[in-house]
Specification:
This protein is of the alpha+beta class and 432 residues long. Helix content is 25%, strand content 25%. α2 runs parallel beside α6 and α5 packs antiparallel against α6.
Length: 432
């Protein structure tokens, strides 16, 4: 009996060996780099030390922090996720608007109130956008072209001269609220509807939906198609797929590293617990949008009181926080962003916002959410004035001494409910 069992095992082992040899013979031969897929190992090799390259941009105490090390890996994964989606899904001949940055792919400090999506274009093509108009205060689509060479030491990504920005809210709509617009270098013959002139070198459209009252505003819907090619999409060639794969590492590197030393650069310039103008005119910022920012550095029992005379006319305003890696502090699960619908101006016309780790029990509070240092960034959009706020550092226990007597009180139970409602409203927006 024992001999029969051993014999059967040997027979099975021999059969498995024959099968393995046959499969190996049928498998494609690996290239010199050890992979049968050209470009795959190059991707792995170029990204292998990417978190370490990001850490090298930080001050030494942060580089040595185990928490920050893992957060650097998270930034690299966020960039990889966003850029991989573009590599697989972006096609200038068969475009679609894909998510680029946000609460999950949190690179480059996305604004808490903005939904960002991008569509790749083939330069010179003719495109059509159609969908249902929404009620967002801002619904704009910005053109961009090939990225120019980045100067050595440049801390802000350069995107070249400003290009057209198109406003969905200006389009004609039918009785059902639907719009229809063509984008092309020249108006198509016979087209009498809405038309936006497209720069012939534009290769990307960046869509921004900016809202303040998250629970009430409705985002537009947007479909995009290329009109001067057949709608069918043929099977992409091996050469096309390989080129996309080979382009991916550079895109991931750029997204991961572009703001790696931005926070520390502000610190070295002396803008700690005070603000400076943040000029993004050459980096893809919206026309009419004015930014200011500064590093915050707070102990657990300390707070910043940010004060500015509010503009009398303003389309949009906000204040957000970032960490040392320029990720926006998680605004879905923390009270870490405030816009004009969420942060009222005091009776004297002054906007006052408190930044701290501990809840001071006031309505206009930004929660640092476990990050003792980072950036406070504000923006005024289409406002008649662009004040740079004053900043005062005080003890959390003494915050009310510096606020108007009519400042309201938010209890812990009320704060928890506010955060739950914020999260529910955000999760009902079209993140993806």
């Amino acid at each position: 009996m024992r001999k029969r069992i051993i014999g059967a095992a040997l027979a099975l082992g021999a059969a498995a060996l024959v099968q393995a040899k046959a499969q190996a013979a049928e498998a494609p031969a690996a290239g010199a780099a050890g992979s049968a897929v050209p470009g795959w190992n190059e991707l792995i090799d170029r990204l292998r030390d990417l978190p370490d390259r990001l850490l090298a941009k930080l001050p030494e105490p942060l580089r040595d922090d185990p928490q920050v090390r893992q957060e650097a890996a998270r930034v690299a994964l966020e960039a990889l996720g966003a850029q991989a989606l573009s590599t697989v899904g972006a096609d200038g001949d068969h475009p679609q608007f894909l998510p680029v940055i946000g609460q999950v792919w949190n690179t480059g400090q996305p604004n808490a109130d903005t939904v960002y999506r991008a569509a790749k274009l083939t330069p010179g093509g003719t495109y059509r956008l159609r969908g249902r108009a929404g009620t967002m205060r801002m619904a704009v689509i910005a053109e961009s072209g090939p990225r120019p060479p980045q100067p050595p030491g440049q801390t802000m990504p350069m995107v070249g001269p400003p290009r057209p920005v198109h406003d969905l809210n200006t389009l004609k709509v039918d009785a059902a609220g639907h719009y229809d617009v063509v984008l092309s270098p020249t108006r198509p013959a016979g087209w009498t509807g809405d038309w936006w002139q497209l720069d012939p070198t534009t290769n990307n459209l960046l869509l921004r939906f900016v809202g303040s009252d998250w629970g009430k505003e409705r985002e537009p819907t947007v479909a995009i198609e290329r009109l001067d090619l057949p709608p069918q999409r043929p099977r992409p060639s091996a050469a096309t797929l390989e080129q996309r794969l080979r382009d991916l590492p550079q895109a991931v590197e750029f997204s991961t590293l572009m703001f790696g030393d931005h926070v520390d650069a502000l610190r070295r310039q002396g803008f700690v617990n005070k603000f400076k103008i943040f000029d993004v005119s050459q980096s893809g910022g919206l026309k009419g949008q004015f930014y200011y920012e500064g590093v915050y550095d707070l102990a657990d029992d300390e707070a910043l009181i940010v004060e500015a005379k509010a503009p009398t006319k303003c389309l949009y305003r906000s204040l957000i926080l970032t960490n040392e890696l320029y990720e926006t502090t998680d605004w879905y699960n923390n009270h870490s962003s405030l816009n004009d619908a969420q942060a009222p101006v005091d009776k004297d016309g002054v906007l006052r916002i408190v930044v701290s780790a501990k809840d001071p029990g006031v309505p206009n509070w930004l929660d640092t959410a476990g990050y003792p240092t980072g950036i406070v960034q504000g923006r005024w959009t289409e406002c008649d004035e662009h004040p740079i706020p004053e900043v005062r550092k005080v003890k959390v226990a003494e915050v009310r001494k510096y606020l108007p007597p009519e400042t309201g009180t938010v209890t812990p139970a009320q704060r928890e409910q506010i955060i739950r409602e914020r999260r529910a409203a955000l999760l009902q927006r079209a993140m993806w």
